[in-house]
Fold this sequence. Notes:
By secondary structure, the chain is mostly helical. It is built from 11 helices and 3 strands; from the N terminus they run ααααβββααααααα. The chain has a 3-stranded mixed sheet, sandwiched between helices. Helix 8 (193-215) packs across helix 9 (218-235). The longest helix is centred in the first third of the chain and has 36 residues, at 81-116. The model is unreliable at 237-241 (pLDDT under 50).
Amino acid sequence: MRFDVYTPLLLSLLLSVVAPVIGGRVAPALAARVLTSAAVLTAAATTWTLVLLAAALLGDAPPVVREAREDGRPLVDPVPEVIGVAAGVALAVVVWRVQRAVRAERRTRRALRRLCAGQPADTELIVAASDVPQAFAIPGRPGRILVTSAMLGALAPDERRVLLAHERAHLAHRHGPLVTAATLAAAANPLLAPVRSAVVFLVERWADEQAATAVGDRRTTARALARAALTAGRARPACTLHFTDRAVTRRIAALQTSPPPHLWPAALAVLALGALPALLAADATGDLLGLLSGVLN
């Protein structure tokens, strides 16, 4: 337990270092899925290790250790007291961060549902009269696409097709739950924030690739992204198609080249990296239970 219980935290750092590399070299659909899965597994493992560390101090372990010492049996604490206290504090912070992220997600969903209120059930596209250029997908049953009049007015007809294909891809491939899962993982384990950022970028790249396939022209797709970014930049930053200056530059550059390959060995390696913390946490659990069982017997 002495090493297994701490290793998931170190592996979190490794996953955060690997995430941007995978995001740039593996097909976005595959990379987004494996990074999200790995982040969720790693976050669950690190949270459980905090539970183990805190439980070893605040639960049954210290009384058992004291009883063993009183009986003349030499036994060291499975967790130093200072680490147990720190783990307890960290666990409380994790609970608070996850609750805050869940509340933010619920507020967002309620706001999106209000935007769809009063619309016919079979309406896919909602056009809002606004001088702020925006476009985004609203998950649900059915999913909706909201576009402002300013956004539509800034784009040529073929670029509007790109815009709608991009947002339809978000809905069809359920990008919302992927980003939510990565966000909650980063809330539980702040070391995974770079992984969450990579997933957010990858779902946009994924939608870009789907839009390019739908319209049959990568150059038109890149031009639509550039025009939307310029239009959004004149209004306020990052207000449409999830743009930031650096992100949109990378996305446009990616559309100037061939689609990235499905590098399954790299993807499987990332999944293995995500599964390893869970295995180590399970091993640490067994060690602690074995220690307590041996003392009680």
